[in-house]
């Protein structure tokens, strides 16, 4: 537990103490921000770009919420904090469920490393955090915390202190249909833009107003608020801003585009108000995202089909999969809800179906199998007990075979790069990650989990996302602004792990030597450059891990993540 020290509330007027405001835009991308700013939709963000520093913020591998925000909070790579996805990779459990993603669901209690909350708190700094992903369940911190969208539906323990929930009774954690696991009326239809944007604007209003209330009246040295709404609209309505989408000029898509732009205008207005308060409090401003966004892949590559055809994965194909089973297993992808399956098609989808059934894999003879990590990135696990030649030789042969894969339609090589996990990650958790990480050409998605991928009839399937949804990529954003920040404009690419040490540098807190990120010192004015302090002897308290059991609440969050396209 952290000791809470008495501290007087901040007074208005001249502020000499340095502070930091971080505004997270989940999935924020310059693919949207730059053209919108140029058109005058984002005057506040545009001001920061013109009067401060900005650039691409390289996300984690894979570029998804769980590892990315965890790397931001710890300043460390996924091999140290353990988050490669939303769940713990557990190869042994693959034999117990049809879904390769059958490990324990991870949350804030599983981050063993000190986060920015502990690092600042143990140095007497007060922190306010609102909706920072992977902060459920909230910890006791030197400050106040409102948890994130991974809070199970109906949970009451989403704030620290618990009484904070009563101070903001109108606060909303997520979209209405997000909290209902995407069971949308009328059942079976796609998300309706008018209803969606009405709901997401309400979430934005309540989150922003809560943030503005807390930033103005609470005592803080670091204020963090994350708007996950940006990720939602880009997942569901990327087609509205993608000129390559076939229906881009349809009236319905034009209306989606108007609603999309209006949302961003409103968001920029709230950001402007937050910046005003930051300037009153002598705070440096950082706007950042966990990953970027872009159009969906045009094809899906089935690595498990390739592994099966080449004898690495042995499957029992006697248990043939029929059309009904395929519909059940891929229903989420086409926005088909359980209610639609039940009420329209008369298909029962019991609990046991949704959480898994026995896999049709002959594990005793399977040497390698693949999981989709995100978009065009996948991983391959080895069954090392069955590999009777040096692992280097096995790996070399498999990788060589993988690089020989070409698209039958055009003869192009599909796999861009294959790397052993040790080349990408370091830390005690690396041994739990896939043995190989592979990267496909951008137009290919690295398959899907479950039997539908396992028993795919072809190496490649086309048009996996006919709705034109958006997908993640590695190119996130960072923007710094304040009286101590130089007017440098584009400042090049940085890593998401660099943000935490930059905050510590600015607040003059010793930077732990085991951080993987480096402080971004060249954003500061020459006469305001902080003194760099990094110490091998400086250590922070370890975090007690509370093991979380699989439960109905975990099941609901798992469904929620699946419907966003992460599973």
From TrEMBL:
Residues making up the signal peptide according to the UniProt record: none
InterPro entries reported in the protein's UniProt record: Alkaline_phosphatase_core_sf, Phosphodiest/P_Trfase
Top-rank lineage group of the source organism: Bacteria
A GO term for molecular function: hydrolase activity
PANTHER family on file: BIS(5'-ADENOSYL)-TRIPHOSPHATASE, ECTONUCLEOTIDE PYROPHOSPHATASE/PHOSPHODIESTERASE
Protein name: Phosphodiesterase
């Amino acid at each position: 537990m952290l000791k809470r020290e008495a501290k007087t509330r901040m007074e208005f007027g001249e502020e000499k103490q340095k502070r930091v405001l971080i505004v997270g835009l989940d999935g924020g991308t310059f693919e949207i921000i730059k053209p919108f700013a140029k058109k005058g939709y984002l005057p506040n963000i545009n001001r920061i770009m013109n009067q401060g520093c900005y650039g691409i913020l390289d996300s984690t591998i894979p570029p998804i919420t769980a590892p990315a925000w965890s790397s931001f909070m710890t300043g460390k790579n996924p091999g140290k904090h353990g988050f490669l996805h939303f769940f713990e990779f557990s190869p042994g459990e693959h034999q117990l469920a049809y879904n390769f993603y059958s490990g324990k669901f991870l949350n804030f209690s599983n981050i063993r490393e000190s986060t920015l909350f502990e690092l600042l708190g143990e140095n007497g700094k007060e922190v306010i955090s609102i909706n920072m992903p992977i902060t459920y369940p909230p910890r006791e911190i030197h400050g106040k915390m409102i948890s994130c969208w991974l809070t199970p539906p109906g949970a009451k323990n989403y704030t620290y202190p618990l009484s904070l929930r009563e101070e903001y009774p109108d606060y909303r954690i997520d979209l209405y249909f997000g909290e209902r696991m995407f069971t949308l009326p009328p059942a079976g239809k796609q998300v309706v833009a008018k209803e969606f944007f009405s709901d997401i604007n309400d979430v934005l209003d309540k989150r922003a107003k809560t943030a503005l209330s807390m930033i103005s009246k609470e005592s803080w040295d670091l204020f963090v608020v994350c708007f996950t709404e940006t990720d939602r609209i880009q997942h569901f309505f990327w087609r509205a801003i993608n000129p390559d989408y076939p229906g881009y000029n349809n009236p319905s898509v034009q209306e989606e585009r108007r609603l999309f732009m209006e949302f961003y205008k409103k968001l920029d207005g709230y950001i402007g108000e937050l910046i005003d308060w930051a300037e009153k409090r002598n705070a440096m401003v950082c706007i950042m995202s966990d990953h970027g966004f872009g159009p969906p892949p045009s094809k899906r590559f089935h690595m498990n089909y390739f592994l099966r055809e080449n004898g690495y994965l042995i499957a029992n194909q006697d248990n043939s999969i029929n059309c009904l089973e395929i519909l059940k297993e891929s229903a989420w992808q086409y926005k088909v809800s359980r209610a639609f399956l039940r009420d329209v098609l008369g298909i029962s989808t019991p609990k046991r179906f949704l959480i898994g059934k026995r896999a049709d894999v002959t594990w005793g003879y399977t040497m390698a199998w693949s999981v989709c990590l995100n978009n065009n990135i996948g991983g391959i696990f080895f069954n090392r007990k069955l590999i009777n030649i040096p692992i280097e030789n096995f790996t070399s042969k498999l990788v060589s075979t993988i690089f020989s894969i070409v698209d039958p339609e055009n003869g192009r090589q599909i796999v861009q790069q294959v790397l052993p996990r040790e080349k990408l990650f370091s830390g005690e958790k690396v041994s739990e990650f896939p043995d190989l990480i592979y990267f496909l050409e951008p137009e290919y998605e690295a398959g899907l989990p479950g039997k539908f991928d396992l028993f795919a009839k072809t190496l490649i399937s086309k048009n996996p996302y006919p709705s034109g949804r958006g997908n993640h990529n590695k190119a996130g954003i960072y923007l710094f602004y304040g009286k101590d920040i130089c007017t440098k404009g584009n400042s090049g690419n940085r890593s998401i792990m660099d943000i935490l040490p930059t905050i510590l540098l600015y607040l003059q807190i010793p930077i732990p030597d085991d951080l993987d990120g480096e402080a971004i010192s060249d954003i500061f004015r020459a006469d305001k450059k902080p003194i760099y302090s990094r110490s091998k002897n400086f250590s922070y308290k370890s975090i007690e891990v509370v093991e979380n059991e699989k439960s109905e609440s975990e099941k609901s969050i798992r469904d929620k993540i699946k419907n966003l396209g992460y599973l």
